[in-house]
Amino acid sequence: MLSSWELSSIALCNSYRDILHHNKKPFYLKGLEEDSSTMDAYIMHSLNHIFRTRDLVKKNEAKLAKLQENVKADILNSEAFLDRGFTRPKVLILLPLASVAFRVVKRLIDLTPPKYKSNVEEHERFYREFGAGVSEDKEDEDAAEISESKRSSKPSDFQALFGGNNNDHFMIGIKFTRRSIKLYSDFYSSDMIVASPLGLITKIGEAEIYKDKNVDYLSSIEVLVVDHADVILMQNWSHVNTIVEQLNRIPSEQHGTNIMRIRQWYLDGQAPFYRQSIILSSHINPDINGLFNHHCLNHEGKVKLASEYKGVLPKVVLQIRQIYERFDANTAEDADDARFDYFTKKVFPKIKDSTQGGIMLFISSYFEFIRVRNFLKSQEASFCLLGEYTEQSDISRARVWFFGGKKKIILYTERAHFYHRYKIRGIQNLIIYSLPERREFYPEVVNMLQGSACTVLFSRLDQLRLERIVGTAAAKRMVTSDKGVFVFC
């Protein structure tokens, strides 16, 4: 029995419009039902597209087989027999982690009609490489329950997301035959490709270096799915942009395709306008917006699901004054400079003149992190670092120094928190230099504070992040109000 959400998701997918759903509750944040329904919808849609495409090709081949050779040339000029692209792969699914791909492909096998899966080739290899050794008879068990020794002090959502195979470099082709599913099929003979952005960008890079390699199997992708885009944001979103720009290009070789059967829009270089792109995320940001606005060009149109946010301020359990200070930034290009200028002229002088230590600067971007680090060095400030590229030994030392008061300031990045979820002790003064992309991180970081107040810097251009934290209505007031300081308790 399909849920109402699943039915509406399937209907939306079947419209072949481009879709951006940016408030999906992911499975690791107790959104298993909605996440599974959405996943089922795009899997069933992908299967339907693959089988309908293949059935049309087979039907036409059967017709052509009955015709005499001298008639075929004239018949092939008919649009009815234009039924294929340059290469076979029709669906590309981009996912952040092998554990997520394991979940998707496993469900893909479940949802494939029985007549097409009497045999699943390379099944054991797939479980071994993507399932991190999880045996088939335990596949439905919660990873946190498999071994008591694997439990940790990390939050439940961290364990759910990172409790499996965390490999972010993978790519697998899937081919459907009359009676079987072939995993690890050659990309050119595959119907579907499931990959991480890093895995696919590596192939693109190899094709640019070596003349005997190419990625022409991306030339005829008709359905693109980017699931868990919010997690991919924590990896490297520029890879996604590069991949999408690579899709639907005229191939460098013929690859055995009958040119007489290729649809006209492929030959005319119009394939991007016939590709459906489905982007699914727990939140939106300018990078996702930019991809959807500039690279999702489906002639059927596009759908962007609107969202209203209540905010996460009630999850701050401590009695803390949260002081939001707005700085002026006229354009997105000026925002980073404006933020840095406000910090160096309005915020840092207070830190420098204070004798109090225990100051944590939470910074969402690595580039901002480097900029602030360099500024603190120039000011000969007492500080230590806790970023995503900091060595483990340096991290341990920094936490001890900060807690013991040997270092006055600690810099902490959102990506470091995403991948490690450190609990930092000794925070007396929290300054959120830039709001986190992930709303659940805000209360987590603020609840580590042992002082009574924190300062948050924002501009009107931060509205997307701001509304996820303070709520849509409050965010609108904060970016339009004449006053520039707002306090939440």
TrEMBL record:
Keywords: Nucleus. Transmembrane segments: none annotated. Residues 16-303 form the UTP25 NTP hydrolase-like domain. Gene3D superfamilies: P-loop containing nucleotide triphosphate hydrolases. It holds the Pfam family UTP25_NTPase-like. It is found in: Nucleus, Nucleolus. Residues 314-488 form the UTP25 C-terminal domain. Its main location: nucleus. Belongs to the UTP25 family. This is U3 small nucleolar RNA-associated protein 25. It comes from Datura stramonium (Jimsonweed).
